[in-house]
Every structure is written in C-alpha cells, then in structure tokens.
Amino acid sequence: MSGTSSSAARPSTTSTFSSLRIPNYRRYFTGQGISLVGTWMQMTAQAWLVLTLTHSPTALGLVTALQTLPVLLLGPYGGVIADRSDKLRLMTVLQAIMGVQALLLGLLTVFHVVRFWEICVLAVFLGVNNAFENSPRQSFIREMVGVDQLRNAITLNSVTVNAARAVGPGIGGLLIAGVGVGICFLLNAASFVAVVASLLLMDRGQLRPSPPAPRAKGQLREGLRYAMQTRQIIVPLGMMGLVGLLAYEFQVSLPVLAQRTFHGGSEVYGFMTASMGVGAAVGGLITARLARTGIRSMVLASLGFGVTILLTAYAPNLWVVYVAMLFAGWASVSFISIGNSTIQLAARPEMRGRVISLWQVAFQGTTPIGGPLVGWIIAVSDPRTGLAVGGVACLVAALGAVLYVRPGRSTPTAPPGSTPPTAPTVEQPPVQQPG
Q1: Region of residue 403 (left: phi > 0; alpha: psi -120 to 50; beta: else)
Q2: Using an 8 Å Cβ cutoff, are 95 and 199 in contact?
Q3: Region 15-40: what's the mean pLDDT?
C-alpha cells in the first residue's frame, strides 16, 4: 500500500498544538470544548432516561436510529447546501437551534412529564439539524486553518470531542444519581451559548473561505461520482461505513453492558464512556503530533480499534473494561481523524462539503440500521456479543481496504483537478476585508 498512502506526509510544523496559534481556531476550539461537554452529558442522560422508561435495549436503539436517520436521508443534501452557503452563518443558526432542542428536552424531564414518544420526536428534530450542520462544521475547519494545519486541527478537534467524552459522561452519571436526568439537558442547553459566542466573535478577515458553488442541477450526483472515482476518498468512506454501522454503537451496547453484565448503575456506564474519552484525548494528542494520513494509517487504526473492542467485550471484570476502553479510545480517535484528514486533503475545495457529508453519512447515517441491529443482537444474545460484532467489523474493514488497494488491482482514477493528499494545493492568504 505504499503507493496509495500518504502516511509519511507531514505539515510544515509538527507541534502538537500548532493549529491553536491561529486565533479563529482557538476561539472555535474553546467554544466547542465547552459545548461538547454538555453534548456528552446529554447523550449519557438520554440513553439512561430511555432505558429507565422502557427497560428495553431495542427502544434505546430505536431512539439512536431516529436521531441519526435524518443524517442518512438528508446528509448528502446538507453537503450541497454547505458548498453553496456561507458556512459560518449557517453553523451559527444551526448551533442555536440545537440549544433549543436541549432546553425543550430538559424542561419536559425536570417537570416529570416526558414520554418516550416525545424523546423520539426531539431525537428526529436534532437529527435533521445535524444533517445540515455536520458538513459546514467539518469543512469550516480548513477555512480557519488552511492546508498546512488541517491534519493537526482535525485531530485536535477529535481530541476535544473525546476529552469531552471523558468529562461529560462522568459528570452526567453523577448528576443523574444526585439531582436527576433533566439537569443534564438544561446544562447542555446553556453550553451552546459558548459555541455560538465563539462563532459570532470570528475574525472574518482571517478566514480562507472556499468560493460558494453556484446553484446547478445534479450537484448531489456530481459529488457522488467524484467520491466514487477518487480512491483516497472512497476507501476511507467504505471503511467508515462498515465501522460506523456496527462498531460506533456504544450508546446502545455500553448502558446494557453496565447494567446487565456488570450489574452497575448510571455511574458505571458513565465511567466506561469516560475511560474511552480519556484514552482518546491522550492518544489523540500523540496522533496530532504525528499528523499522519492515508489508507495505510487508517488500516492500522482500524485493526487496533477492532482488537481493543474485542478485549472490552470479553473482559472478565470492570477494571479490565476500563483499561481496554482507554486503548479503544485512542484507536477510535486515530481512525476518525486520519480518515477525515485524508478525504479533506483529497477533495477539491468546491467538493469539500459534499465529500464531508458522505463521511458523516458513513459515520452517523449508518446508525439507523446499526443501532437497532446491535440492540436486537443484544436482546437475542447478550451485551458482550453485541459489542464484539463491532470489533469484528473493524477487522473486516481493515482487510477489505488492504484487498482493495493491493498491487495489480485496477482502481478508479481520480477525476481531473482533484488534489492528492501528498501534494495539497496552495491556498491564497486570507483577504483582509474592509473595516
């Protein structure tokens, strides 16, 4: 795979926190960090609330599916909108709407009137918002930092997500046990103030915006064809599709593993998720410094992710689970950040939103199928088996990528004008806008 990977490619500086020297990204990073802690608190609280109301892992999978089904159905259109729009303005509006959703769920829960169908409706509401917010948020990173710092910024962004995963579920578990589920939703609603403020304070003169794509017929099909014909895009998308389908269903498998296998409460589930977050945060900093991209690096991360999930699934006690999930977190953030960086560096600027939308469909949009499927597997067998299926999926994805790019195999040729990851295009410096 040496001819198909840019694993050795490095940015001009390999400082672990080099992208944070850019003021706009520093503002964005801070706002996202605060908001994501609230997001992980809400995810923990929502999973526990559904399990408490229904006592059904299938219902838990259904809510997860409803929240991610809009990403599957509408995500590609979200990418088209992102390529046509002012990404900063679009993100600001959509982030504010997400805060409203958290507030509504919190008020229903605090006043003890929440019903399962209401959780389902609000999950769909959030999913529609995510379908249109994911693409501009992901592609906006390049507009803040440029090509040279893209790998580092994407990895640090993943570190932020997983550092929040380490803090948010732990706090959420303690709050659930101490003051109730509803407070987690209300605190998440308040956390969106930080991220909206960070976006409003952006210095537009320092951004590197991509020219908006003109409105035209067939732009969605054009994006799909482009991705299918570019190996450095289609291989990561295929790997993420399989891994996202079965491995990233922790919100379904871990609560049941904590409750039924280890006979624990919400705090055990919180510590499981937090352990994975700590591993992702620490391992992500190492990944940020290495700044590796390409298919080879993604294959190695997928292998590591699969092995650590299997170790977690068949761990004899909670201490082994916590240790295994530390390494699963590291492999997880490496897999995501390497794949995201690889496809962004391979995509032409006017295609970036559509390519990122396909990445989000592969990552989150597969959950409407994978969530209920893993829930069903757990229902007919046990939580360990449901978790192990995800580990096997990671190993199969790695093997499939190796076979796809093996020497002598005929592979698609990138369309004219695409940007290979090893030689990114040089972007113009930001244009200072008048006063």
Answers
A1: alpha
A2: yes
A3: 89
What number is the average pLDDT over the span 364-388?
87
48 and 269 in contact (C-beta within 8 Å)?
A: yes
CATH class of 16-202+219-404: mainly alpha
pLDDT for 256-305, tens place per residue? Answer: 898 888 888 777 887 888 788 788 778 777 777 776 778 899 999 999 99
**How far is the C-alpha of 77 from the C-alpha of 421, rounded, in Å?**
25
Residues contacting residue 380 through CB under 8 Å, at least 6 positions apart: none
pTM over 0.85: no
List the domain boundaries for the chain: 16-202+219-404
Q: Which residue, among 105, 259, 269, has the nearest Cα to 181 in the 3D structure?
A: 105
**Could you give the CA distance from residue 96 to residue 114 in angstroms, rounded to a whole number?**
22
Most confident listed range (60-74, 90-104, 285-299): 90-104
pLDDT at 219 over 90: no
Say if residue 95's pLDDT is above 90.
yes
What counts of helices (H) and strands (E) characterise the chain?
15, 0
